[in-house]
Amino acid sequence: MSSIYFNPRVDYAFKRVLGSVQNKDLLIDFLNAMLYYGEDRIKDVEIVNPYVQGEIYTQKETYVDVRAKLDDGTEVLVEMQMLNVINFPQRVLYNTAKVYGGQLQRGEEYKRLQKVVGVTITNFVLFAEQPEWYLHFAFREMSSGMPYPGDNNIELIFVELPKFDVAHVDLANKAHRWMLFLKEGDMLDQQMREYLMNSPVIRRAYENLELARMNKADRDELERRETWLRDQIGALDYALTEGLAKGLSQGLSQGLSQGLSQGLSQGLSQGLATGRTEGRAEGSEFIVLRVLTRRLGALPESVRARIDTLTLPQIEQLADALLDFMTLTDLQVWLDGVATQGAHTPATTL
């Protein structure tokens, strides 16, 4: 962390910059860059969930950092996401669709629906198969590309910061200025930072992250959030490395051993398949246990035993849910729910 400025990618800092009522002009500039490729089409916004100085975040991740309504009625959800979690694209779509569907009260006509746009900035690569750092999704017909009828639909915009090439930044481009600020803002040398701050909007954004301008409560909360996020990222990276190594080693060893007993040619094929499957299961369970321990403390043996009985799909569901757990009770309630679902699963008739 810079000795002068806080990391703008930390959710608390991000919302301080773009979610404050007094910073509406910054949000307008940012949204014009993200939604309209730099054209000044948005003239006013209403921030639905404004940042309040001194508010305290819990360790549970906030799904929407800034929610705003544009002057044309469009609603925009803006999220800065530091941690990659399982089924994250589906989570973004669900949250956006929930806002879209929640616009109407019983008996109201569909023509009252307004467009909802989800803008998600990630500090990780989400779409590895696409080289572009900016992706804009909308409903279209598959073969012809014809847009879905009407203007008031759901759209999703994803911005992947790791893909943005700071070596080829164009500071005359509004979107490029914001990407450089978000990706490198707290780490730029003074000369480059001053050059970037030739934009009055970006200069104001920096002022919101300057330590000297913050009260103690805000500084303490920002430090807690950055420390917590750094710990989560470190725990996930370590668990992934250790879990995959352990799972692959054990799975391949057992799979190859079983395969060799059936004949070298057939055994290698089956052994590798078995190794990959069991290795994935072993690795996934190891990762989940590692992260749960970091979040909730040492797990009782009874809880670990219950996790050991989960199937691979259930372990993956647990990996998706665990970042929402605040206490051991949350985990036990989730496990009870899985057990209840299993008890109600009808038997298959042969």
Describe the fold and architecture.
- By secondary structure, the protein is of the alpha/beta class.
- The chain has two domains: 11-214, no CATH class; 225-343, no CATH class.
- The protein contains eleven helices and six strands.
- Helix content is 50%, strand content 10%.
- It has a six-stranded mixed β-sheet, with helices on both faces.
- The N and C termini lie far apart (62 Å).
Provide key terms for this protein.
globular; 2 domains; 350 residues; six-stranded mixed β-sheet; disordered C terminus; alpha/beta
Number of contiguous helices: 11
What Rg is obtained from the alpha carbons, in whole angstroms? Answer: 24 Å
What's the helical proportion of residues? 40-55%
Oligomer: single chain
Q: How many domain units?
A: 2
First-residue to last-residue Cα separation:
62 Å
Brief account:
It contains eleven helices and six strands. It has 350 residues and is of the alpha/beta class. It has two domains: 11-214, no CATH class; 225-343, no CATH class.
Produce the secondary structure layout.
Layout: H1 11-18, H2 24-36, E1 45-47, E2 66-70, E3 75-81, H3 88-101, E4 116-122, E5 134-138, E6 154-160, H4 174-184, H5 190-196, H6 200-209, H7 216-260, H8 264-296, H9 301-308, H10 312-321, H11 328-343
Parallel strand pairs: 3-4, 4-6
Antiparallel strand pairs: 1-2, 2-3, 5-6
Helix pairs in contact: 1-6, 7-8, 8-10
